[in-house]
Protein backbone atom coordinates (compact mmCIF):
# COMPACT_ATOMS: atom_id res chain seq x y z
CA UNK A 1 0.00 0.00 0.00
CA UNK A 2 1.25 3.48 -0.88
CA UNK A 3 2.18 5.59 2.15
CA UNK A 4 1.86 9.31 1.58
CA UNK A 5 1.76 12.54 3.56
CA UNK A 6 1.65 15.87 1.68
CA UNK A 7 3.16 14.24 -1.42
CA UNK A 8 0.42 13.28 -3.90
CA UNK A 9 1.09 10.84 -6.74
CA UNK A 10 0.44 12.47 -10.12
CA UNK A 11 1.89 9.96 -12.55
CA UNK A 12 4.45 7.24 -13.21
CA UNK A 13 6.46 5.81 -16.09
CA UNK A 14 8.23 2.43 -15.89
CA UNK A 15 10.70 3.41 -18.65
CA UNK A 16 9.56 0.58 -20.92
CA UNK A 17 10.26 -2.03 -18.26
CA UNK A 18 13.87 -0.84 -17.90
CA UNK A 19 13.41 1.43 -14.93
CA UNK A 20 16.64 0.82 -13.01
CA UNK A 21 17.28 4.50 -12.36
CA UNK A 22 20.65 5.80 -11.20
CA UNK A 23 21.38 9.07 -9.43
CA UNK A 24 21.40 11.45 -12.34
CA UNK A 25 17.93 13.03 -12.66
CA UNK A 26 17.61 16.46 -14.23
CA UNK A 27 14.90 18.65 -15.75
CA UNK A 28 15.34 20.87 -18.80
CA UNK A 29 12.77 23.36 -20.10
CA UNK A 30 12.85 24.46 -23.74
CA UNK A 31 10.26 25.73 -26.20
CA UNK A 32 7.44 25.44 -23.71
CA UNK A 33 8.15 21.75 -23.11
CA UNK A 34 9.67 20.03 -20.10
CA UNK A 35 12.17 17.23 -20.56
CA UNK A 36 13.39 14.87 -17.85
CA UNK A 37 16.72 13.07 -18.30
CA UNK A 38 17.39 10.00 -16.18
CA UNK A 39 20.70 8.15 -15.89
CA UNK A 40 20.48 4.40 -15.30
CA UNK A 41 21.97 2.34 -12.50
CA UNK A 42 23.00 -0.31 -14.99
CA UNK A 43 22.69 -1.22 -18.66
CA UNK A 44 21.60 -1.76 -21.25
CA UNK A 45 20.18 1.78 -21.03
CA UNK A 46 22.54 4.74 -20.84
CA UNK A 47 19.88 7.39 -20.18
CA UNK A 48 16.16 7.89 -20.74
CA UNK A 49 14.38 11.01 -22.00
CA UNK A 50 10.84 11.81 -20.93
CA UNK A 51 8.45 14.57 -21.90
CA UNK A 52 6.94 15.64 -18.57
CA UNK A 53 5.09 18.70 -19.85
CA UNK A 54 1.98 17.03 -18.46
CA UNK A 55 3.14 15.72 -15.06
CA UNK A 56 0.09 13.45 -14.87
CA UNK A 57 1.19 11.64 -17.99
CA UNK A 58 5.00 11.44 -18.18
CA UNK A 59 5.88 10.13 -21.65
CA UNK A 60 9.01 8.20 -22.58
CA UNK A 61 10.35 9.64 -25.84
CA UNK A 62 13.81 8.12 -26.07
CA UNK A 63 16.40 5.80 -24.59
CA UNK A 64 20.09 5.78 -25.48
CA UNK A 65 21.89 2.47 -24.95
CA UNK A 66 25.36 1.72 -23.62
CA UNK A 67 28.06 0.09 -25.76
CA UNK A 68 28.51 -2.96 -23.51
CA UNK A 69 27.40 -4.53 -20.23
CA UNK A 70 30.49 -3.57 -18.22
CA UNK A 71 29.85 0.17 -18.28
CA UNK A 72 27.18 2.26 -16.58
CA UNK A 73 26.15 5.90 -16.68
CA UNK A 74 25.11 6.41 -13.09
CA UNK A 75 25.24 10.22 -13.20
CA UNK A 76 24.48 13.14 -15.52
CA UNK A 77 24.36 16.94 -15.28
CA UNK A 78 22.77 19.73 -17.33
CA UNK A 79 23.96 23.31 -17.70
CA UNK A 80 22.88 25.64 -20.46
CA UNK A 81 22.26 23.62 -23.62
CA UNK A 82 24.76 20.95 -22.62
CA UNK A 83 24.39 17.62 -20.84
CA UNK A 84 27.38 15.72 -19.42
CA UNK A 85 27.10 11.98 -18.79
CA UNK A 86 29.50 10.04 -16.54
CA UNK A 87 30.78 6.60 -17.51
CA UNK A 88 32.16 4.13 -14.99
CA UNK A 89 33.35 0.64 -15.92
CA UNK A 90 33.29 -2.48 -13.79
CA UNK A 91 37.00 -3.27 -14.35
CA UNK A 92 39.94 -0.85 -14.59
CA UNK A 93 41.26 -0.48 -18.11
CA UNK A 94 37.94 -0.83 -19.93
CA UNK A 95 36.40 1.88 -22.11
CA UNK A 96 34.45 4.13 -22.27
CA UNK A 97 35.48 5.53 -18.91
CA UNK A 98 35.14 9.28 -18.40
CA UNK A 99 32.49 11.68 -19.67
CA UNK A 100 30.52 12.32 -22.83
CA UNK A 101 29.11 15.75 -23.72
CA UNK A 102 25.76 16.14 -25.48
CA UNK A 103 24.23 19.16 -27.19
CA UNK A 104 20.57 19.77 -26.21
CA UNK A 105 19.61 22.14 -29.04
CA UNK A 106 17.04 19.45 -29.86
CA UNK A 107 16.17 18.25 -26.36
CA UNK A 108 14.30 15.18 -27.59
CA UNK A 109 17.38 13.96 -29.44
CA UNK A 110 20.61 14.85 -27.59
CA UNK A 111 23.59 14.95 -29.95
CA UNK A 112 27.02 13.73 -28.84
CA UNK A 113 29.64 16.40 -29.45
CA UNK A 114 32.66 15.29 -27.38
CA UNK A 115 34.16 12.78 -24.99
CA UNK A 116 36.90 12.97 -22.40
CA UNK A 117 38.66 9.61 -22.06
CA UNK A 118 39.72 8.99 -18.46
CA UNK A 119 40.34 5.27 -18.78
CA UNK A 120 43.57 3.75 -17.59
CA UNK A 121 45.13 0.67 -16.01
CA UNK A 122 44.00 1.77 -12.52
CA UNK A 123 40.93 3.78 -13.53
CA UNK A 124 37.25 2.81 -13.51
CA UNK A 125 36.40 6.22 -14.94
CA UNK A 126 33.80 8.65 -13.62
CA UNK A 127 31.18 7.87 -10.98
CA UNK A 128 29.64 11.33 -10.61
CA UNK A 129 29.54 14.60 -12.54
CA UNK A 130 28.18 18.02 -11.58
CA UNK A 131 28.00 21.29 -13.49
CA UNK A 132 25.77 24.29 -12.81
CA UNK A 133 27.56 27.28 -14.36
CA UNK A 134 28.09 25.82 -17.85
CA UNK A 135 31.84 26.39 -17.63
CA UNK A 136 33.34 23.93 -15.16
CA UNK A 137 32.34 20.34 -14.52
CA UNK A 138 33.38 18.61 -11.30
CA UNK A 139 34.04 14.88 -11.48
CA UNK A 140 34.61 12.03 -9.07
CA UNK A 141 36.85 9.99 -11.30
CA UNK A 142 39.96 8.00 -11.98
CA UNK A 143 42.40 9.14 -14.66
CA UNK A 144 44.83 7.46 -17.08
CA UNK A 145 47.75 8.26 -14.77
CA UNK A 146 46.11 7.66 -11.40
CA UNK A 147 47.96 5.40 -8.94
CA UNK A 148 45.65 4.75 -5.98
CA UNK A 149 47.34 3.44 -2.85
CA UNK A 150 44.26 1.26 -2.29
CA UNK A 151 41.77 0.03 -4.92
CA UNK A 152 39.00 1.56 -2.79
CA UNK A 153 40.58 5.02 -3.18
CA UNK A 154 40.62 5.00 -6.98
CA UNK A 155 38.70 8.22 -7.68
CA UNK A 156 39.39 11.85 -6.83
CA UNK A 157 38.21 15.37 -7.68
CA UNK A 158 38.90 16.45 -11.27
CA UNK A 159 37.83 19.83 -12.68
CA UNK A 160 37.03 19.97 -16.40
CA UNK A 161 36.84 23.15 -18.47
CA UNK A 162 33.82 23.26 -20.82
CA UNK A 163 34.45 26.73 -22.26
CA UNK A 164 34.39 24.89 -25.59
CA UNK A 165 31.95 22.04 -24.96
CA UNK A 166 33.27 20.17 -27.97
CA UNK A 167 36.76 20.18 -26.42
CA UNK A 168 36.53 19.36 -22.70
CA UNK A 169 39.87 19.48 -20.91
CA UNK A 170 41.13 18.82 -17.40
CA UNK A 171 42.29 21.93 -15.57
CA UNK A 172 42.72 20.76 -11.98
CA UNK A 173 42.61 17.86 -9.55
CA UNK A 174 42.68 17.15 -5.81
CA UNK A 175 42.75 14.04 -3.65
CA UNK A 176 42.93 13.36 0.05
CA UNK A 177 46.64 13.21 0.92
CA UNK A 178 47.87 9.67 1.41
CA UNK A 179 45.47 8.05 -1.06
CA UNK A 180 47.78 8.07 -4.10
CA UNK A 181 51.05 6.22 -4.37
CA UNK A 182 54.05 8.46 -3.73
CA UNK A 183 52.19 10.88 -1.45
CA UNK A 184 54.28 12.30 1.36
CA UNK A 185 51.33 11.96 3.74
CA UNK A 186 50.67 8.58 5.37
CA UNK A 187 47.62 6.59 4.22
CA UNK A 188 44.42 7.52 6.05
CA UNK A 189 43.16 5.19 8.76
CA UNK A 190 40.65 2.72 7.33
CA UNK A 191 37.19 2.41 8.83
CA UNK A 192 37.46 -0.46 11.33
CA UNK A 193 34.08 -2.00 10.53
CA UNK A 194 32.80 -0.82 7.14
CA UNK A 195 35.72 0.20 4.92
CA UNK A 196 34.21 1.83 1.80
CA UNK A 197 37.29 3.82 0.83
CA UNK A 198 38.43 7.42 0.52
CA UNK A 199 37.15 9.02 -2.65
CA UNK A 200 34.69 11.80 -3.49
CA UNK A 201 31.06 11.29 -4.35
CA UNK A 202 29.08 14.50 -4.93
CA UNK A 203 31.00 17.76 -5.41
CA UNK A 204 28.94 20.91 -5.03
CA UNK A 205 29.96 24.31 -6.34
CA UNK A 206 27.29 27.01 -6.56
CA UNK A 207 27.40 30.07 -8.85
CA UNK A 208 27.02 32.36 -5.84
CA UNK A 209 30.19 30.90 -4.31
CA UNK A 210 32.37 29.69 -7.20
CA UNK A 211 35.49 29.61 -5.01
CA UNK A 212 34.25 26.77 -2.77
CA UNK A 213 33.56 23.09 -3.41
CA UNK A 214 31.73 20.99 -0.83
CA UNK A 215 32.58 17.31 -1.20
CA UNK A 216 31.10 14.17 0.30
CA UNK A 217 34.28 12.08 0.55
CA UNK A 218 32.88 8.62 1.45
CA UNK A 219 34.80 7.47 4.58
CA UNK A 220 36.75 10.75 4.59
CA UNK A 221 33.73 12.72 5.81
CA UNK A 222 33.05 16.13 4.28
CA UNK A 223 35.75 18.17 2.57
CA UNK A 224 35.63 21.94 1.91
CA UNK A 225 37.93 22.96 -0.93
CA UNK A 226 39.13 26.36 -2.11
CA UNK A 227 38.69 26.22 -5.89
CA UNK A 228 39.29 29.90 -6.65
CA UNK A 229 42.29 28.67 -8.65
CA UNK A 230 40.80 25.81 -10.67
CA UNK A 231 44.27 24.52 -11.48
CA UNK A 232 45.23 24.13 -7.82
CA UNK A 233 42.35 23.26 -5.45
CA UNK A 234 43.36 23.39 -1.80
CA UNK A 235 41.94 22.15 1.48
CA UNK A 236 39.98 24.60 3.63
CA UNK A 237 38.66 22.15 6.21
CA UNK A 238 37.50 18.63 6.84
CA UNK A 239 34.60 17.36 8.91
CA UNK A 240 35.58 13.91 10.19
CA UNK A 241 32.94 11.74 11.85
CA UNK A 242 33.63 8.22 10.49
CA UNK A 243 34.10 6.46 12.88
CA UNK A 244 32.08 6.57 15.10
CA UNK A 245 29.54 6.81 12.25
CA UNK A 246 29.46 4.11 9.58
CA UNK A 247 30.98 5.96 6.66
CA UNK A 248 29.98 6.86 3.10
CA UNK A 249 29.49 10.64 3.21
CA UNK A 250 27.64 11.19 -0.05
CA UNK A 251 26.25 14.72 -0.50
CA UNK A 252 27.22 18.02 1.11
CA UNK A 253 24.69 20.60 -0.03
CA UNK A 254 25.49 24.20 0.93
CA UNK A 255 22.74 26.46 2.25
CA UNK A 256 24.92 29.53 1.75
CA UNK A 257 22.81 32.36 3.13
CA UNK A 258 22.54 30.46 6.42
CA UNK A 259 26.11 29.21 6.71
CA UNK A 260 24.88 25.62 6.77
CA UNK A 261 25.48 22.31 5.02
CA UNK A 262 22.95 19.52 4.54
CA UNK A 263 24.85 16.23 4.50
CA UNK A 264 23.72 12.72 3.63
CA UNK A 265 25.49 9.45 4.36
CA UNK A 266 24.49 6.83 1.79
CA UNK A 267 23.08 3.51 2.93
CA UNK A 268 24.88 0.77 0.98
CA UNK A 269 23.77 -2.39 2.81
CA UNK A 270 20.42 -4.11 3.03
CA UNK A 271 18.25 -4.69 6.08
CA UNK A 272 19.69 -1.86 8.16
CA UNK A 273 23.13 -3.48 8.38
CA UNK A 274 24.89 -0.09 8.20
CA UNK A 275 22.30 1.90 10.17
CA UNK A 276 22.22 4.79 10.96
CA UNK A 277 22.50 6.55 7.61
CA UNK A 278 21.37 10.08 8.29
CA UNK A 279 20.64 13.50 6.92
CA UNK A 280 22.79 15.83 9.01
CA UNK A 281 22.80 19.62 9.34
CA UNK A 282 26.21 21.20 9.91
CA UNK A 283 27.22 24.77 10.72
CA UNK A 284 29.95 26.05 8.36
CA UNK A 285 29.67 29.73 9.22
CA UNK A 286 33.21 29.42 10.52
CA UNK A 287 34.42 27.24 7.69
CA UNK A 288 37.68 26.21 9.31
CA UNK A 289 35.70 24.27 11.92
CA UNK A 290 32.50 22.75 10.48
CA UNK A 291 30.27 21.30 13.18
CA UNK A 292 27.26 18.98 12.99
CA UNK A 293 24.41 20.59 14.93
CA UNK A 294 21.43 18.27 14.24
CA UNK A 295 20.01 15.31 12.38
CA UNK A 296 16.73 14.98 10.53
CA UNK A 297 14.34 12.44 12.06
CA UNK A 298 14.25 8.99 10.46
CA UNK A 299 11.17 6.84 10.14
CA UNK A 300 11.24 3.89 12.56
CA UNK A 301 14.20 1.62 11.85
CA UNK A 302 12.36 -1.28 13.50
CA UNK A 303 9.77 -1.07 10.72
CA UNK A 304 11.75 -0.12 7.64
CA UNK A 305 14.87 -2.21 8.18
CA UNK A 306 12.66 -5.33 8.21
CA UNK A 307 11.05 -4.44 4.89
CA UNK A 308 14.16 -5.46 2.95
CA UNK A 309 16.51 -3.58 0.65
CA UNK A 310 18.38 -0.49 1.70
CA UNK A 311 17.04 1.85 4.38
CA UNK A 312 18.61 5.26 4.97
CA UNK A 313 19.66 8.48 3.32
CA UNK A 314 21.01 8.89 -0.20
CA UNK A 315 20.48 11.90 -2.48
CA UNK A 316 19.19 15.42 -1.92
CA UNK A 317 17.53 17.72 -4.40
CA UNK A 318 20.46 20.03 -5.03
CA UNK A 319 18.87 23.49 -5.46
CA UNK A 320 20.13 23.79 -9.04
CA UNK A 321 20.22 27.48 -10.04
CA UNK A 322 17.70 27.19 -12.87
CA UNK A 323 14.39 29.04 -13.14
CA UNK A 324 12.54 25.71 -13.16
CA UNK A 325 14.30 24.23 -10.12
CA UNK A 326 13.10 24.22 -6.52
CA UNK A 327 15.45 26.48 -4.56
CA UNK A 328 14.99 26.57 -0.83
CA UNK A 329 17.27 26.68 2.18
CA UNK A 330 14.39 25.79 4.49
CA UNK A 331 12.58 22.84 2.88
CA UNK A 332 14.83 20.00 1.68
CA UNK A 333 13.88 16.88 -0.27
CA UNK A 334 15.79 13.61 0.03
CA UNK A 335 15.66 10.04 -1.25
CA UNK A 336 15.71 7.31 1.39
CA UNK A 337 15.60 4.01 -0.55
CA UNK A 338 12.82 1.85 0.98
CA UNK A 339 11.62 4.85 3.00
CA UNK A 340 10.89 6.64 -0.27
CA UNK A 341 10.93 10.42 -0.55
CA UNK A 342 11.11 12.53 2.61
CA UNK A 343 10.85 16.32 2.90
CA UNK A 344 12.20 18.26 5.86
CA UNK A 345 11.69 21.74 7.22
CA UNK A 346 15.11 22.90 8.45
CA UNK A 347 14.16 26.50 9.19
CA UNK A 348 15.27 25.73 12.74
CA UNK A 349 18.67 24.19 12.04
CA UNK A 350 18.78 22.63 15.50
CA UNK A 351 15.40 20.90 15.13
CA UNK A 352 14.65 19.66 11.60
CA UNK A 353 11.19 18.18 11.23
CA UNK A 354 9.63 15.97 8.59
CA UNK A 355 6.86 17.70 6.62
CA UNK A 356 6.10 15.24 3.81
CA UNK A 357 6.79 11.66 2.73
CA UNK A 358 5.96 9.20 -0.01
CA UNK A 359 6.63 5.46 -0.14
CA UNK A 360 5.21 3.83 -3.28
CA UNK A 361 3.43 0.54 -3.51
CA UNK A 362 5.07 -1.90 -5.93
CA UNK A 363 3.61 -4.81 -7.87
CA UNK A 364 3.60 -8.28 -6.26
CA UNK A 365 6.96 -9.97 -6.71
CA UNK A 366 8.78 -6.68 -7.33
CA UNK A 367 10.43 -6.58 -3.92
CA UNK A 368 10.55 -3.29 -2.05
CA UNK A 369 10.81 0.24 -3.44
CA UNK A 370 14.29 1.75 -3.56
CA UNK A 371 14.00 5.48 -4.28
CA UNK A 372 17.46 6.43 -5.49
CA UNK A 373 17.35 10.06 -6.60
CA UNK A 374 15.02 12.99 -7.17
CA UNK A 375 14.61 16.37 -8.81
CA UNK A 376 12.10 18.96 -7.59
CA UNK A 377 10.82 21.71 -9.85
CA UNK A 378 9.89 25.28 -8.91
CA UNK A 379 6.22 24.31 -8.44
CA UNK A 380 7.03 21.54 -5.98
CA UNK A 381 6.62 18.70 -8.49
CA UNK A 382 8.95 15.88 -7.46
CA UNK A 383 10.44 13.46 -9.97
CA UNK A 384 11.54 10.43 -7.94
CA UNK A 385 13.80 7.82 -9.55
CA UNK A 386 13.57 4.19 -8.38
CA UNK A 387 16.51 1.81 -8.81
CA UNK A 388 15.01 -1.69 -8.77
CA UNK A 389 12.90 -1.42 -11.92
CA UNK A 390 9.88 0.79 -11.18
CA UNK A 391 11.06 3.87 -13.09
CA UNK A 392 9.91 7.43 -12.36
CA UNK A 393 7.24 8.60 -9.92
CA UNK A 394 5.85 12.13 -10.32
CA UNK A 395 4.59 13.68 -7.09
CA UNK A 396 3.08 17.00 -6.04
CA UNK A 397 4.34 18.53 -2.80
CA UNK A 398 1.36 19.94 -0.89
CA UNK A 399 3.17 21.62 1.97
CA UNK A 400 2.95 25.29 2.78
Quickly describe the structure.
With 400 residues, the chain is mostly beta strands. It is built from one helix and 29 strands.
Task: List the topology elements.
Blueprint: E1 3-5, E2 7-13, E3 21-30, E4 33-40, E5 45-51, E6 59-65, E7 71-72, E8 76-79, E9 82-89, E10 98-103, E11 111-117, E12 126-130, E13 136-141, E14 156-161, E15 169-174, E16 203-206, E17 209-216, E18 222-226, E19 234-239, E20 249-255, E21 260-265, E22 279-283, E23 291-295, H1 301-304, E24 331-335, E25 341-345, E26 353-359, E27 371-376, E28 381-386, E29 391-397
Antiparallel strand pairs: 1-26, 2-29, 3-4, 4-5, 5-6, 7-9, 8-9, 9-10, 10-11, 12-13, 13-14, 14-15, 16-17, 17-18, 18-19, 20-21, 21-22, 22-23, 24-25, 25-26, 27-28, 28-29
Describe this structure as you would to a colleague.
The chain is an all-beta fold and 400 residues long. It has a single domain (3-183, 195-337, 346-373, 385-397), classed as YVTN repeat-like/Quinoprotein amine dehydrogenase (Methylamine Dehydrogenase, Chain H, 7 Propeller). It is built from one helix and 29 strands. It has one helix at residues 301-304; strands at residues 3-5, 7-13, 21-30, 33-40, 45-51, 59-65, 71-72, 76-79, 82-89, 98-103, 111-117, 126-130, 136-141, 156-161, 169-174, 203-206, 209-216, 222-226, 234-239, 249-255, 260-265, 279-283, 291-295, 331-335, 341-345, 353-359, 371-376, 381-386, 391-397. Strands 7, 8, 9, 10 and 11 form a five-stranded antiparallel sheet that branches. A four-stranded antiparallel sheet has the order 1-26-25-24, with no helix packed on it. The two termini are 26 Å apart.
Amino acid sequence: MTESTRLRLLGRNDLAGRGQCGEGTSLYVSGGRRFLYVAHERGPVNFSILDVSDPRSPRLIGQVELPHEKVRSNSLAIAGEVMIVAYQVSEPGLEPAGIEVFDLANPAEPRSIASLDLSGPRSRGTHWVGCVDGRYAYLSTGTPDSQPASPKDDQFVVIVDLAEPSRPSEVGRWWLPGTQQGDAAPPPRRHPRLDSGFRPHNIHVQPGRPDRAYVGYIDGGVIVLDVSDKSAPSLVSRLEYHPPMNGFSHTALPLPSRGLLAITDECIRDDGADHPKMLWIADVSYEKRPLIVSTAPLPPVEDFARRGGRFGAHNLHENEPFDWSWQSEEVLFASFFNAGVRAYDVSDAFHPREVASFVPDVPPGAGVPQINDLFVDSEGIVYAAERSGQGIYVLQYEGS
